[in-house]
Predict the structure.
Amino acid sequence: MESQLDQTNQFLVATPVKILNGESSEHGRAEKSLAASEIRFRRLFESAKDGILILDAVTGQITEVNPFLRELLGYSEREMLGKKLWEIGLFEDHERSIIAYQELQTKGYVRYEDLPLKTKDGQRKEVEFVSNVYDVNGQRVIQCNIRDITDRKCVEKALAQTNESLKQTVKELAERNQEIGLLSEMGDSLQSCVSVDEAYRVAGRFSSQLFSGTQGVLYTLEPSRNVLEVAIAWGGPLPGEQEFALNDCVALRRGRVHVVNGEDVASRLICQHLGSSVSNYLCAPMIAYGEIQGVLHLRCAEGDIGATGKSSILLEKSKLGLAGTIADYIGLALANLKLREALREQSIHDPVTSLHNRRYMKEALERELRRALRDQQPLGILMMDIDHFKKLNDSFGHEAGDAVLKALGNFLKTQFRGNDIPCRYGGEEFLIILPGIPLGECQKRAEKLREEVKRLDVQHDGKSLPRISFSMGVSAFPEHGDMLDDLLKVADNALYSAKAAGRDRVVVGPAISHSPIEAVRIENLN
């Protein structure tokens, strides 16, 4: 019994000790674990390559700051502990930092990449700012993890600038491609023009496209008066002279593009053909084959000048070169058209009388006869010959004869309508094409012309030459047929009849016989 009781007492005494020893062991392990965790945290806190701030969530004061952040910002631990972030000037944007702190208090978590910090010596540091609010032993604590992303931001900025530069380059290339396309189209259009007026319209249309937002004028040279005058304008009415002398334009004096902007207007030569208020403009001379063709003038459209007084449209170097290129295009096209026109005039005009020559006469007769046949309208022909012209040449010389021919050419130009066609047929013979004039009216006009020419006074070497007279033959469609050779033959035979009958008279060729149907048609035409 005693041994059993002793055993029971020993168990009761020993059991609490074992329990206490177990609890003590668990508590020790917890303390050791906590201590190890504290050490690990402290090591991480001290050796982290990111900045770490611990704040009191209630007061907002800094309670801990790791070495990395102190080194990054240049502050000592003593300068930072117990201070609020905005109190030591860490944030460049003070108000935004307070708003971010209030947002953190509400949400419990914030992340920013656009709240740069400022170091003690004033350097800007781009950072990634991540903050959390949590409880430690019943106390609310804020932990801020701050990563230095200055290098990354620099790279991003450089990439953004590169991308922007690439976009600008692509835009400029697109503009250049568009300009090249318009220039090519402009060149093709100018080469297709058959008159200078048509070329003016083409130049104005493409210039307004290539220099959008500008006003412009194309001045062309009037050789007979040695002045420049407005050929075409676009973009609205422009102040300044409508015509001016060559020396009034600085670009023509210098032989290259002349540009004036608002900043250097006081120190630059100003073209005298412009109004006094013009301070942003460009003049590009149009010169081809060594001869002045005109001036391309451009200026800013009203209200298109920036605060600096400059016009980016006109002052860009590429645009200056473009203006010079366009001026060359237009100048060359105008010179070629004028040369082509001069050659054409020489090919269809008689050099002595300035009337249309025999070559043009034949083309015009064929054209007018086709039109008369199509529209069933009459067509008259007057063929004339100067009486005793050989005697005049023999008596006064060929120069006197040329003077008579020249005077007669000027005389005939004043005696007919705009659509009548006076021509030199050859030698002292002339032929007049009268579209839409019936035979009877042709005869009346011939008689009037025969009387008027006798009053013509021709001077040579200061002396009056003998008065001249005409012998004339008349034919017409449809009375004398519908074939060109027939009409000319009838008029020529009538002319010889007039000369054989004593000259200075008009003879109408005999009508050819027609069928009854043709006779009715002729009667209706008359």
In short: Confidence is low (pLDDT under 50) at residues 1-20, 303-313, 515-526. The chain has four domains: 1-47, 48-148, 195-344, 349-525. The two ends are 173 Å apart (CA to CA).
